[in-house]
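Example 3.2
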Amino acid sequence: MNKESDFQEQWLKNATITIYGLGLMGASLAMALRRAGIGKLIQAIDINPDSIQTGLDLGIIDYGSTTPGNFLPQSDLIILAMPVGAICETLENLNAGLKTGVIVTDLGSTKIEITKRMENLPQHIAAVGGHPMCGMELNGIGAAKPDLYDGENFFLIPTSHTTTKTLSVLQYLISAIGAMPILTEAETHDQITALTSHLPYLISVALLTGVQQCMSGTDLAEPYIGSGFQDMTRIAGSDKQMMLDILLTNRRHILTGLASVEQTIVTVRRLLETEQNDALQKLLTVQMDNSRQMNTRKMKRSVQWSK
């Protein structure tokens, strides 16, 4: 272990960490921090008192409250684990009462609007945007698990409030909970995740809606539903407020992706209508190969990181 990593480890082990939001992501993070031995104290803030009590009962937090109270001024590291809209609102109200050098980061799924607000924080606050590429359609502390972050990419978006120390501490933390830290910019992040994360959600919603309209509901179709339909519609069950915040804060890039998918659907429909079987087969073959290669590469990266 070199001096830099030794400093990061000691800093994190002695830190008072406050997780603001004890749902799926925040509670899973608390579990992962406990597993990694990070945090002298782990505190949580959540508007739901039952979530706080569950966190205390599970032993994944030391203290909890439904209001910020004195938690934020005591914190060395604050992690905002709420829907994007709530993260933005919280950042707008963070004030000079925080420690000098306190690190503020988040787990929000879009980054442009969040990092804009980080830029406006008082100068003594260090801030880095964050987004782990993991999650489930389930929500709440009851769905939390300590390995949620294992092998997953965890994006960090530096701001003008980001110091070298801040970045190195968060990179160490991310590695310690089993994830892979990747630096990127807010615009790049939102442009690409609109295509790889937010657009799939809308397609899932559209597919489920379309089938319901064709069948006047899904009851008649249920005996015919297999794993393919379940896989395609699973993420339509994601938390509506979380997804609405994502859609509204990444509208521009999502609309671009929707236009591209709409054009592809038109193309596929035309190939079917005009019985262009060879062209249709070519399209299916190309994307079959692309899908398999992409999944193989992802598996290899996860295996390499775990070593």
